[in-house]
Automatic annotation (TrEMBL):
Annotated positions binding 4-amino-2-methyl-5-(diphosphooxymethyl)pyrimidine: Q193, Y194, R195, D196, K197, N225, S264, K293
EC number per UniProt: 2.5.1.3
ThiD2 domain residues: 33-151
UniProt key word Magnesium: yes
Gene: thiE
Name of this chain's protein: Thiamine-phosphate synthase
Note accompanying the cofactor annotation: Binds 1 Mg(2+) ion per subunit.
Pathway: Cofactor biosynthesis; thiamine diphosphate biosynthesis; thiamine phosphate from 4-amino-2-methyl-5-diphosphomethylpyrimidine and 4-methyl-5-(2-phosphoethyl)-thiazole: step 1/1
Cofactor: Mg(2+)
Chain spans, region Unknown: 1-145
PANTHER family, A to Z: THIAMINE-PHOSPHATE PYROPHOSPHORYLASE, THIAMINE-PHOSPHATE SYNTHASE
Residues of the Thiamine phosphate synthase/TenI domain: 167-342
Location of the region described as Thiamine-phosphate synthase in the Swiss-Prot/TrEMBL record: 146-368
Amino acid sequence: MKQAGYYDESTNGVVVMVEPYSQKQQIQQVVYRILDANLDRAREGLRVIEEWCRFGLNNVQMTSECKQLRQEIASWHTAELRAARDTLCDTGTEITHPQEETRSGIRALLQANFCRVQEALRVLEEYGKLVNSNMGIAFKQMRYRVYTLETNLMGYERHQMLLRARLYLVTSPSENLIGTVEAALKGGLTLIQYRDKNADDTLRLDLAVSLRDLCRNYGALFIVNDRVDLALAVDADGVHLGQQDMPISVARQLLGPQRLIGRSTTNPQEMQQAIADGADYIGVGPVYETPTKEGKAAAGLEYVQYAAQHSTIPWFAIGGIDTSNINDVIDAGASRVAVVRSLMQAEQPTLVTQYLLSQLNRIQSERK
Ligand SMILES: Cc1ncc(COP(=O)(O)OP(=O)(O)O)c(N)n1
Ligand SMILES: Cc1nc(C(=O)O)sc1CCOP(=O)(O)O
Ligand SMILES: [Mg+2]
């Protein structure tokens, strides 16, 4: 395909006059450029994800799935498509997403790259169909494989983050809810539960969305108390269910295997049942009587000791824990703690978070 006045090497520099591009050829060139750019984009995004699967997680299966997808994408990148490239005229190379410069953690980075790959595959599917019907089909299948990879990888990441979490903030209604939670996140908090027993659903939804966004920005896990529907509606990382809430088996059917389900327990029997039902973590309490959960008798430090010896899943001591008694709870065997008032009513939530975490991390390294 040569334009009029084209400098042709095959004629030793003699300028040959040939027919200009037809309109059809021009459109084809544009389609080729779109395919060329998106083939690169999809592979680059997958490479970023693959590096984490390989070096971060050491996961052979997910690494090899990324590699296979990259190779399959590369097999569609023909010389004809590459020849349509025109980077100098491509206005898109300068455009970056505002958040690209300020991504806060591995989860945000992975999420952004999955988004990039899926968008590119969708473009390849739609424009590929114009060139070759098999191309449309192939990229549609790859897009579904990437969704599966995303579900598995993000679910795995969630569980890893839960294992690493030492301090859990359960919120209470507050005029400064977002400010307090953000201050705690700045102190290093990585696990938040939105708990409000009385608000209207419209307010709950608004606040849950704001907290979810905040948690995503800080790379923290976001859990919703009591309500599986709300957790799903805001794409939360999971839900916390008490003994009077929905059974774990039903919640699991709704939430799938990748989201987290926590269960409150007050005695060994409830603990064993929660583990058997497939809870991802449990609350162990109330360690001390607390106005936040009025009328519930303390399970005491004895139950903390029991949990330390018998729980096979992550567990959080909860109920009346603050800076003055956290070391007693740690001494009874806890390495994870959940609090409401300690942080929600703190004058300096960042400092209190840092202090509580420093105690929990100190004991962690001593126990190793
Ligand atoms: C981490 C954690 N542990 C326990 C609870 C209490 O749950 P539940 O017994 O359902 O009581 P409410 O919080 O719903 O009043 C919790 N929320 N989080
Ligand atoms: C929400 C909740 N659940 C508990 C349980 O034992 O299941 S204790 C509790 C409240 C904890 O609040 P604070 O840190 O203010 O004492
Ligand atoms: Mg509940």
